[in-house]
């Protein structure tokens, strides 16, 4: 398995292949399609991330010190964003997630390119991931 | 006035987003500001800053005059009986709350009923819910049908001797259909019930004549008709305003303040407590003057009609698209188009359209009960202003199709 840093660099590199934001969105949509389906039973109020225009569910399972994520969203681009986070953070240790500052997202330009309301959604996703690692 | 010279007045139309020319189709949320309004605003701030009605010095006189000129302009524009029927507020929401807390608190009693249409903006729902809760009054909902039409027969069956007020948008910000306000008013007045018309969108798309409509209250915001934000109007019939107590106490709304008691100024000043929007409110005058110029231009009104027909057919011809607010049966459509696309999330479409330079609204549009009515979590809305071109309308439809293809 790649290290956290390697996984982050890989995402940054893949996103930077596209100059145009529409292409980046297509990439995110494709990424979202690779997410393992989240069972209906995991779409609970507890797993729901608040602060997004679309609905996003993030389920976590811990095996010892390792944390695994599954996610889904009713919107495709948002699903792509959460898929990107799941790809990077699922299977990491609690310490790794706790110590990470998520700054690789800044290099992708996701935050600047989402309006404040949607960036709020991204921040809510980050906060949810962090909260699971507490 | 032709469309090119109109567009010249709005600098933001030349702006680029992500390197593409902005196509601004979120006019129902707020209009762009024309240079005449910005100049007036700036001039008020730079050369007319003084508080109103309070001092005898020259600048205070200038400031008071431009504020009162705006009041006179609003009064004549909407056909009010006199400028004293025009209360300045910070917007439609503030106007509705003013009616709620002044008129409502005094005249709505326990057991009384207030009717609101199902298609209302939250601003014309929540204050009434709050009042009903406080007073033990009942809020009743006048439902819309699948097309977004309201039935007068339904209203008749809701009205009863306990009904004190009916609150209805002139045009819903979601449906874009002109509601039969005049007929509603007639019906309500026949049983002594008052009518509040939320004209936030009506003022944009119709030539309002409050005496012809005969409604008791008509409210709107300045920012949707080119004026400065945080400007707004409450029109109410004189005898009603006279009967209303102040709801905010403070400076300049008084006649006399004694420890033994305070008497209040006459309307409209009774309702304008504290320092007003002294730089913004005067912009209502140039804004309404521009509205008049636009209404007098056959070219501009033809353009908007053509756009309306084009978008209606563009959206209706695709079976995946569901349009809300269908014209017909006496309901005229204005260029406000809310829709959803089968299987696709409004947020995805709005994000992609945004990157194509097209600004549309997405979400619940401050009308959650209406979203529930149609069983959706949100919609997309494209709303056009007189400065929008047919070319922009075509670009919107083709961008929408591209976005839909991308999300397949
Ligand atoms: C129909 C309707 N009513 C009320 C409002 C509230 O206007 P404001 O936010 O300017 O007070 C709006 C604006 O979105 C509207 O469209």
Overall pLDDT of chain A: 89
Q: What is the general shape of chain B? A: globular
Provide the list of bound ligands, each named once: pyridoxal-5'-phosphate
Give me the oligomer status.
Answer: heterodimer
Can you write the helix and strand succession of chain A as a string? HHEEHEHHHH
What portion of residues of chain B belong to β-strands? 15-25%
Number of DSSP helices of chain A? Answer: 7
Q: How would you describe the shape of chain A? A: globular
**Strand pairing plus helix content of chain A: what structural class?**
alpha+beta
* Total number of strands of chain A: 3
The CATH topology of chain A: Sufe protein. Chain: A
Low-confidence stretches of chain A: none
What does this protein structure show overall?
The complex is a heterodimer of chains A (134) and B (408). With 134 residues, chain A is α+β, with helices and mostly antiparallel strands. Chain A has 7 helices and 3 strands; from the N terminus they run ααββαβαααα. In chain A, helix 2 packs across helix 3. Chain A is globular and about 40 Å long. Chain B folds into 2 domains: 3-25 and 297-406, Alpha-Beta Complex (Aspartate Aminotransferase, domain 1); 38-290, Aspartate Aminotransferase, domain 2 (3-Layer(aba) Sandwich), CATH 3.40.640. Chain B is built from 15 helices and 17 strands. Chain B has helices at residues 3-8, 35-47, 58-77, 92-107, 126-135, 152-158, 181-189, 202-205, 210-213, 238-243, 284-295, 298-316, 346-355, 368-374, 390-406; strands at residues 16-17, 20-21, 23-24, 86-89, 113-117, 138-142, 163-169, 194-198, 217-221, 232-236, 254-258, 261-264, 321-324, 336-341, 358-359, 361-363, 379-383. The mean pLDDT of chain B is 96. The A-B interface holds A 21-22, 25-26, 29, 53-55, 74-78, 115, 118 and B 18, 344-348, 351-352, 354-356, 362-363, 377-378, 406-407. Residues 91-93, 121, 123-124, 169, 173, 198, 200-201, 221, 366 of chain B line the site of pyridoxal-5'-phosphate.
């Amino acid at each position: 398995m790649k290290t956290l840093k390697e996984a982050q660099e890989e995402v940054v590199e893949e996103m930077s292949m596209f100059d145009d934001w529409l292409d980046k969105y297509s990439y995110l949509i494709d990424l979202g399609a690779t997410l393992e389906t989240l069972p209906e039973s995991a779409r609970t109020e507890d797993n729901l991330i608040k602060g997004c225009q679309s609905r996003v569910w993030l389920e976590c399972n811990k095996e010892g010190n390792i944390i695994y994520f599954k996610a889904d969203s009713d919107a495709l681009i948002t699903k792509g964003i959460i898929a990107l986070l799941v790809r990077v953070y699922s299977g990491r240790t609690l310490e790794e997630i706790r110590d990470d500052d998520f700054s690789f997202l800044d290099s992708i330009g996701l935050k600047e390119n989402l309006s404040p309301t949607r960036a709020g959604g991204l921040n809510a996703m980050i906060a949810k991931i962090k909260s699971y690692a507490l | 006035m032709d469309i090119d010279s109109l567009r010249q007045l709005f600098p933001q139309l030349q702006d680029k987003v992500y390197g593409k020319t902005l196509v601004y189709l979120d006019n129902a949320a707020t209009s762009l500001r024309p240079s005449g309004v910005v100049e007036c605003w700036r001039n008020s701030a730079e050369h007319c800053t003084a508080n109103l009605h309070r001092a005898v010095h020259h600048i205070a006189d200038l400031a008071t005059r431009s504020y009162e000129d705006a009041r006179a302009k609003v009064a004549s524009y909407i056909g009010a009986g006199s400028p004293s029927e025009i209360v300045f507020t910070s917007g439609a929401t503030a106007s509705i709350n003013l009616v709620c807390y002044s008129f409502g608190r005094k005249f709505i009693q326990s057991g009384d009923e207030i009717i609101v249409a199902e298609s209302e903006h939250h601003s014309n729902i929540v204050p009434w819910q709050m009042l009903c809760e406080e007073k033990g009054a009942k809020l009743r909902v006048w439902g819309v049908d699948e097309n977004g039409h309201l039935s007068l027969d339904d209203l008749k069956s809701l009205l009863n001797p306990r009904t004190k007020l009916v609150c209805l948008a002139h045009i819903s910000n979601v449906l874009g259909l002109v509601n039969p306000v005049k007929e509603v008013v007639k019906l309500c007045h026949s049983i002594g019930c008052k009518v509040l018309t939320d004209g936030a969108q009506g003022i944009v798309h119709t030539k309002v004549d409050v005496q012809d409509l005969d409604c008791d209250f008509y409210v709107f915001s300045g920012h949707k008709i080119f004026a400065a934000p945080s400007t707004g109007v409450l029109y109410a019939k004189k005898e009603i305003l006279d009967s209303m107590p102040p709801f905010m106490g403070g400076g300049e709304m008084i006649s006399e303040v004694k420890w033994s008691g305070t008497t209040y100024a006459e309307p409209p000043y009774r309702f304008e407590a504290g320092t007003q929007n002294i730089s913004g409110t005067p912009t209502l005058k140039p804004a309404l003057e521009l509205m008049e110029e636009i209404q007098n231009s056959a070219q501009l009104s033809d353009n908007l009609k053509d756009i309306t027909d084009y978008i209606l057919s563009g959206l209706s011809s695709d079976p995946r698209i569901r349009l809300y607010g269908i014209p017909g049966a006496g309901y005229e459509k204005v260029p406000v188009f809310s829709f959803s696309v089968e299987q696709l999330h409004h947020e995805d479409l709005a994000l992609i359209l945004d990157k194509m330079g097209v600004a549309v609204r997405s979400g619940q549009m401050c009308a959650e009960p209406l979203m529930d009515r149609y069983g959706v979590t949100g919609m997309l809305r494209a709303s056009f202003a007189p400065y929008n071109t047919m070319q922009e309308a075509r670009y919107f439809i083709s961008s929408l199709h591209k976005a839909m293809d991308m999300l397949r």
